[in-house]
Amino acid sequence: MRILEFTKIAFLSLVTNKIRAILTMLGIIIGVMSVILLVSIGTGLQSFVTKQFASLGSNTIFVLPGKVDFRSGGPTTPVSKFELTDVSDITRGSASVLHVSPAVAQNATITAKGKTVGTEIAGVWENYFLIQNFTAETGDIIRQSDVERTRKTIVLGPKPATELFGDADPIGQWVTLGAVRYQIKGVLVSKGGGGALGADIDNHAFIPLTSALRQFNQNKPYMLLIQATAPESVDQAAADVKRILSRRLKDDDFTVMQQTELLNTINQFLGAITVALGGIAAISLLVGGIGIMNIMLVSVTERTREIGLRKAIGATPKDILLQFLIEAVILSLTGGAIGILLGALGSLALRSFVQTSVTLWSVALASGFSAAIGIIFGVAPAIRASRLDPIEALRYE
Amino acid sequence: MANRMAKELLRLTNVSKVYRMDGITFTALHDISLTVTEGEFVAITGPSGSGKSTLMHLIGCLDHPTTGTIFLEGTDISRAGTTTLARLRNVHIGFVFQQFHLLRRTTSVANVELPLIYRTMSSRERRRRAIEALGEVGLGDKLHNFPSQLSGGQQQRVAIARALVTDPKILLADEPTGNLDSKSGHDILGMFQNLHKAGRTVILVTHDQNVAAIARRQIKISDGTIVSDTTRKQP
Predict the structure, then answer these.
(1) Dist CA A210 CA A220 (whole Å)
(2) Across the interface, do B115 and A305 touch by the CB < 8 Å criterion?
C-alpha cells in the first residue's frame, strides 16, 4: 500500500524534473539497447550458420591436412599429404561412403571485359557439386570429363556472375584467372538467403581440380570432401576414412571432421563472441548505473529541506529510504524498457543487412540487469537521505 | 470545550541538552522543568542563542535530551529511537515553521495531505481531510494552487492546515510570523488565537515580545534556563 504511494511520489518528482530524468536514463537506455542489439546479431549469426549447414546436408565429412582443433588456437598451415589414390581407396574401401571429391581452393580475382571480382576459386571433381547440393541455374556444372582433360572451364557462383555480367548471359564467355583464360560453363543456383552474409555464401567459382592444381602450382589436393550414404552412416563413414588413411599417413597428418562437428565448433565460437559482445555492452550499463547514482546523490542534496520536512511531519528513515530507492528503480526500469524497445527496433532495422534475432533471454537479462542497477546504485543515495537529521535538513539553505 | 479539566500533556523534568563538537562542550539547555496541560497557549520567548530552539526541538520530538526526562501524553520519549520519534511526531505534533516549508510544484491540497501519507489511510479519506483542513484556514478556494501562486500569508495558512490535518495534540509554531508582513502576521496570530479558543494546545516559539503577548502563558528563556514562567489571568 505504502509502496504504491511512494511510487506515485517518485513518479511525480521525476515528471517535475523531466529533462534530468531523461538524461539520467540515457545511460541505461544505451546500455540495454546495445546488449539487445549485439546479442541479437550474435544469435542471428548462429541461426544463419546453422540454417546454411542444414541446407548442405548433415551427411558430409571433411578431411583436412594436419591436426585441426578450432578450440585451441588457430589452425596452422599444414602441408597436404593427400594423393588422388586416397580418393579411390576410400571409395572402394567403405560401403558407407557415397561420393568423394578432392578439392583445392584459393582466393583470387577473376577478370572479364575489364571488370574484376574477388572470389574463392575451388578446384573440384564433379562429385563436389553432388555432395554440396550445388546445381546449375544455367549451363552445366564441372563434369569428370572436364577434370580428366584438364579443361579451362569455370562454373561461377551467383555473386561473381552478376557482378561481372549483370543481366547478360555469361555462358560461353571468357574470364581471365591469373594469366589463364577460362570459358564459363555454368552459373550455380543461389544458396544465400539474401543479406550481406547470404551474398558471401554465393561468392565462389569452380574449375576442374586438374586445371586448379596447375593454375595454383600445386601437386596435391588440399582437402577431401566426402558424402556418406545416409545421415545415420556418417559415423561409420568417418571411421572408415580414418582407418583407410591411417594405412598410408600418420595420425597428425590429417583430420576427419563431420559436418555436425564443424557446426558445433563454429556455433561454440559464435556463442563465445555473442557473450563477449554482450559483456562489453553490459559495461555501458554499469556506467549508466553510476550516472543514476550521481543524479540521485545530487537530488538528495537538492531536496535536503524536503527530506527534513517529510521527517519532521512523521516520515521514518525507512519511508525516506523507500522513496529514493523507488525513484532510482523507476529511472533504471523505464530506461531499461526504452532500451529494449530501441534495441528491438534497431535489430529489426539491421535485418536487411545482417540476420538478427531478439531472444527472450537477452530481454530478460537486460531488464533484470537494469532493475538490479537501480537498486544497487540507488541504495547509497537513499541511505544518505534516510540518515539526514531533520533539524539540520530543515535549516539547509 | 467539554474537557476543561487540566490534563497533563507534556512534562519535562530536569532536562539538559549539551552539544559536543570538536572537544568543546556547549550547554544549550540547563536543568529545565516545565509542564504543559491540554488547551494551553504557551509562548516560549528569548533572544537568539538562548536555547529556545533547542527546547522546541525537544518538545517537537526532533531530538533527545542529554539528561532528564520528557513525558508526552504519559509516555517517556527521552530515549525513544528515531523511528518511534517519527511516529510520535506524526501523531502528536503539528509543526508550523518560519519558512513555511511547503513543497514547491505541489498543490496546496497535496501539501496538506503530506503527513497523512505516512499513515495507513485511503487516498480518498486523505483528500477529504486535506480539503476540510484547508477550509478551516479559509483556503477552500485555493486547493489546487501551487505555493508560488500564493501570498506569504496564504502559504503559512496552508502550512497551518498541514499541521492541523493530523489532529495533533500540540501545535508547535516556530517564529510563524517571522517571514510575513505585519498584516499577514496579524492574521496568522489571530488564527492561532482562534485555534486555542477552539481547544487546541498551542506552543509558540518567538523572539518577538509583541507576538508572544497574545499567549496567556509566557515562558522566558535565557542562557539555557527558564528565567520566568507567568500565566495571565483569563480575561
Answers:
(1) 10
(2) no
Asked if residue B234 is part of any domain, the answer here is: no
Range B110-113 contact pairs with CB under 8 angstroms and sequence separation of 24 or more? B111/B147, B111/B158, B111/B159, B111/B162, B112/B158, B112/B161, B112/B162, B112/B165, B113/B165
The beta strand positions in chain B, using DSSP E, are: 8-21, 24-37, 41-45, 67-72, 75-76, 93-96, 170-174, 201-206, 217-222, 225-231
Specify if B1 maps to a domain: no
Phi and psi at residue B130, to the nearest 5°: -65, -45
Per-residue model confidence (pLDDT) at position B2: 42
Residue B2 lies in a domain: no
Q: What is the DSSP string of A42-95?
A: HHHHHHHHHHHHHHH-S-EEEEEES---SSSS----PPP---HHHHHHHHHH-T
Residue B233 falls inside a structural domain: no
How many A/B residue pairs have CB atoms within 8 Å?
A: 59
Closest-CA residue in chain A for B164?
A313
Tally of domains within chain B: 1
Stretch among A87-101, A344-358, B139-153, B219-233 having the lowest mean pLDDT: A344-358
Chain B residues near residue A5 by CB distance under 8 angstroms:
117, 123
Task: Look up the CATH number of the domain holding residue B83.
Answer: 3.40.50.300
Q: Rg of chain B's alpha carbons, rounded to an integer?
A: 18
Which chain A residues contact residue B123 at CB under 8 A?
Answer: 5
User: What are the grid coordinates assigned to A78, written together?
Assistant: 599444414
- Tell me the C-alpha distance between A360 and A358, whole Å: 7
Residue A269 is inside which H or E element, if any? Answer: helix A259-302
CA A387 to chain B, closest CA, distance in angstroms equals 10
Query: What would you report as the CA-atom Rg of chain A, rounded to the nearest whole angstrom?
Result: 31
CB count within 10 Å of CB B42 equals 25
Higher pLDDT, B86 or A3: B86
